[in-house]
Write a structure and sequence with these properties.
Layout lengths: L10 H21 L6 H7 L4 H7 L3 H20 L1
């Protein structure tokens, strides 16, 4: 018998996404999007690259989430 092994998105997943978005914001600000490496983001979040790809399809979707979470505060800081 084959079991359905879907993962649930609970509080732990939400916290992991927040950690990844925060780390991504730091790495993108430091290195720029093109030069930022997924491995550097994972290291900054103390997670694996597998965790990033579990939660995000690619680096662009991680950037999008990071901007939606932190973009407003960064823009306010710059202005």
């Amino acid at each position: 018998m084959i079991r359905d092994v879907t993962r649930e998105r609970g509080p732990a997943a939400t916290a992991t996404r927040a950690r990844l978005a925060e780390a991504a914001a730091q790495v993108f600000a430091r290195d720029g999007f093109e030069s930022a490496k997924v491995s550097a983001i994972a290291e900054a979040a103390s997670l694996t690259t597998g965790a990033i790809y579990f939660h995000y399809a690619d680096k662009t979707s991680l950037l999008t989430d990071s901007l939606s979470r932190h973009g407003g505060s960064e823009l306010a800081r710059l202005l």
